[in-house]
Design a protein that fits this description.
It is an enzyme of class 2 (transferase). InterPro entries: DNA_methylase_N6_adenine_CS, RNA_MeTrfase_RsmD, SAM-dependent_MTases_sf. The chain has 180 residues and is of the alpha/beta class. It has helices at 26-39, 56-63, 76-89, 100-106, 124-136, and strands spanning 46-50, 68-73, 93-97, 111-116, 140-151, 162-168, 171-177. It has a 7-stranded mixed sheet with strand order 3-2-1-4-5-7-6, sandwiched between helices. It starts with 25 loop residues before the first helix and ends with a strand.
Length: 180
């Protein structure tokens, strides 16, 4: 995996092979960050990265100047790798080892961007829990955006606060926003 843009542009990050992850492809990641760039200033946002895996998305935010980044993943190996990489590049990434649903049930504060990349084999009920918990606990700022990555076989556009989706090959990003 590589960082696409910003201070660490073109840096390759090699994750251990034993991590239970499926990193977002470079093509999909580049398209996603073009959308985000049109809506936000990276140095002014706070980010919550759920099911963070290798930290791929968080590194991209950090490289572009985001100072407040929190990664949540339940796998110790993933959290350890994110911490090592963040320390190596002096990136402002905080990690939390937790089941994402338990974290969302108890979380407080608000974020401008919440990115969730759960396993593609999640049930639609499990996918639906993510926006449900985010909005029930007011975790998005007023102009915030929740982005859920999933396969083209999962349909989330019937969920409350769904705004739009973008597809890139087999990757789909569903965007959710605070109504009003």
């Amino acid at each position: 995996m590589r960082i696409i843009s910003g201070q660490y542009k073109s840096r390759k990050i090699i994750a251990p092979k034993n991590l239970p992850v499926r990193p977002t492809t470079d093509m999909a990641k580049e398209s996603l960050f073009n959308i985000i760039n049109n809506n936000y200033y990276f140095d002014e946002v706070s980010v919550l990265d759920l099911f963070a895996g290798t930290g791929n998305i968080s590194y991209e935010f950090a490289s572009r100047g985001t100072e407040t980044i929190t990664c949540v993943d339940q796998d110790f190996g993933c959290i350890k790798f994110i911490n090592q990489t963040a320390n190596k590049f002096d990136m402002p990434i905080n990690t939390i080892k937790s089941d994402v649903f338990k974290y969302l049930e108890k979380a407080s504060g608000s974020y401008d961007i919440i990115f969730a990349d759960p396993p593609y084999n999640f049930s639609e009920e499990d996918f639906a829990k993510i926006p449900e918990l985010v909005f029930a606990n007011n975790l998005l700022s007023e102009n915030g955006m929740l982005i859920v990555e999933h396969s083209k076989h999962t349909n989330l556009n019937n969920l409350e606060n769904f705004s739009y989706l973008k597809s890139y090959g087999g990757n789909v990003f569903s965007f959710f926003e605070v109504e009003g």
